[in-house]
Structures are given as C-alpha cells and as structure tokens.
C-alpha cells in the first residue's frame, strides 16, 4: 500500500507543475504572472494540446484520482482531484483553454522631469501674520 503513497506524491508534483502557471484571462487587463511562473510556463507551453485543452485535463485528473481512492490516507486528495476534474469539465464546455501570459515590455517614460509651471504653496511667515493682525479691525473697535 505504500506504493500508492509514493504515487500520490509524484502525482502531486506533476499537478504542481501543471497548475502553477496562471493562464491569461479572456477579458480584462489584470494578467499578472506568479513569482517564478516563467519556468513552469515554458514546460506547459511545450506540452501543446495535452496541457492546454481543459477536456484533456478533465480526463487526466479523473484518471489519476482513481488509485488514490483505495487507501484512507489519500482519499482526500482523490476527492480534490475529482472536484478539480469537474471544474475543468465545466470550463471545457464553456470553450476555455489555457493560454500563457506573455509579459509586455513596459514603455519608458521621459527621462527628464518637466519643471513645474506654478510655485509650490508656502506657509506664511510669522512676521507677516503679526503685521496682518494689526490691520484687521476687531469687532469691539467698530462699536466705539
């Protein structure tokens, strides 16, 4: 029975390699790679149709979950693989497929910062505040 445990560890590593690279979104601009995703993306991209098509992933996860159902220690992993295969089946029915995120080069901005057109705001000096207080008439002075 220990052979199934070794099988589960190897299948887990293969799953990590297959699932780590994030796919490009169909809509939106928020495609961000995970850290060190580029290395796994190259491997998955080389797999071609076998790694890109979600129907094939559905069958793959369903098949690899079967041996894990035979002993209690790996049943939870088998249930996770079955749920994953159902998710991939629904994604395949919707017509989705894995596409690599191709990083785009950032556009370089100007190297020289343009000088400001207005001066920055400044706090008034204490001397100018004291002088302005003398010029302001208080309400008591107006009654006289």
UniProtKB/TrEMBL annotation:
Entry keyword Membrane: yes
rRNA-binding in keyword set: no
One GO cellular component, as annotated: plasma membrane
UniProt-listed InterPro entries: Cyt_b558_asu
Segments for region (Disordered): 104-144
Origin: domain of life: Eukaryota
Coiled-coil features, chain-numbered ranges: none
GO molecular function list: heme binding
Bilayer-spanning residue ranges: 6-22, 58-91
Subunit relationships: Component of the phagocyte NADPH oxidase core complex/cytochrome b558 complex, composed of CYBB (heavy chain (beta)) and CYBA (light chain (alpha)). Component of the phagocyte NADPH oxidase complex composed of an obligatory core heterodimer formed by the membrane proteins CYBA and CYBB and the cytosolic regulatory subunits NCF1/p47-phox, NCF2/p67-phox, NCF4/p40-phox and the small GTPase RAC1 or RAC2. Interacts with NCF1 (via SH3 domain). Interacts with SH3PXD2A. Interacts with DUOX1, DUOX2 and TPO. Interacts with NOX4; this interaction mediates superoxide generation.
Listed PANTHER family: CYTOCHROME B-245 LIGHT CHAIN (PTHR15168)
Similarity-based family: Belongs to the p22phox family.
Stated name of the protein: Cytochrome b-245 light chain
Annotated source species: Elysia marginata
């Amino acid at each position: 029975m220990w052979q199934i445990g070794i099988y589960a560890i190897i299948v887990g590593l293969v799953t990590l390699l297959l699932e780590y690279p994030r796919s490009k979104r169909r809509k939106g601009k928020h495609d961000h790679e995970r850290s060190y995703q580029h290395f796994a993306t190259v491997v998955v991209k080389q797999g071609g149709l076998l790694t890109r098509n979600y129907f094939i992933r559905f069958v793959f996860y369903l098949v690899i979950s079967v041996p894990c159902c035979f002993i209690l220690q790996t049943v939870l992993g088998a249930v996770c693989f079955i749920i994953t295969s159902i998710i991939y089946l629904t994604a395949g029915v919707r017509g989705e497929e894995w596409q690599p995120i191709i990083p785009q080069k950032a556009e370089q901005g100007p190297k020289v910062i343009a000088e400001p057109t207005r001066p920055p705001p400044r706090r008034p000096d204490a001397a100018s505040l004291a002088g302005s207080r003398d010029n302001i008439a208080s309400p008591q002075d107006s009654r006289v």
